[in-house]
Amino acid sequence: MGIILNGKPEGAAGRNEGCRRNGEQDWEDVQVNAARNAVGLVEDDPDQAQLIAHWLENAGYTVKLFQHAAEFRRKLGAVSVDLLILDWNLPDESGLTVLRALRESGNNQLPVLFLTARDGEQDIVTGLSQGADDYVTKPARQGELLARVEVLLRRTGLHTETRLDDETLAPYMIDPARRRITLNGEEITLTEREFDLALFLFRRRGRIVSRDSLLESVWNLPGDVATRTVDTHVSRLRKKLELGGEHGWRLSAVYQHGYRLERA
Prior knowledge:
Blueprint: E1 3-5, E2 8-9, H1 12-15, E3 20-21, E4 24-25, E5 38-42, H2 46-58, E6 62-66, H3 69-75, E7 83-87, H4 95-104, E8 112-116, H5 121-129, E9 134-137, H6 142-155, H7 166-169, E10 172-175, E11 180-183, E12 186-187, H8 192-203, E13 208-209, H9 211-217, H10 229-240, E14 249-254, E15 258-263
Parallel strand pairs: 1-6, 5-6, 5-7, 7-8, 8-9
Antiparallel strand pairs: 1-2, 3-4, 10-11, 11-12, 13-15, 14-15
Helix pairs in contact: 8-10
């Protein structure tokens, strides 16, 4: 697993070697674990950022680092994260302003964890009232931070071990433990990769997920790899699971952003 700096994993170039076929990347046989949760971290202190990223990475998360508020805002549409850790005091803009803009844009599903040196009651109340889901005071403690991240992901149903609600997904049923998906009671035969992709999309139903995030979380590859494998797998999955709207769910492309699985 690698820390992603500004949307690109460290050491990505080395992982690209030996994976070409006829001049194009071929990632069909890359072996990876099941999709991991992606955590965005907006923190201008490089030492603090690397420390927290190290904790998260060792706990099994993909980490995307942003040093400035403007950088995060600029890349938000192209980079998908499951949770955001946001520093209150940023050099170019306060974390509170970033949070307010995030919520006002309609992005109310993304859980936000404030990282702040402010521990006064009024500051905490202000952060929570503006849309933060939780907070950790500096200096951050590893156990507490990881516990709060896990709780927030479980609360939103995005944690990789969280069971999916069958009634919410009907007529589909997904069993992550047995790696099975059924449609109206009939099991659909999927490859390992197709199942991981389907699970990733159903956990993020209603949200736009970028191609970069799919490559990083489902394939464990750099998001800037030149390959059509994501598009090919999405097309194949749409056909196998009949996600064209006929069963109440539609998987569609969102121009210049990625894909979205949503109720038809």
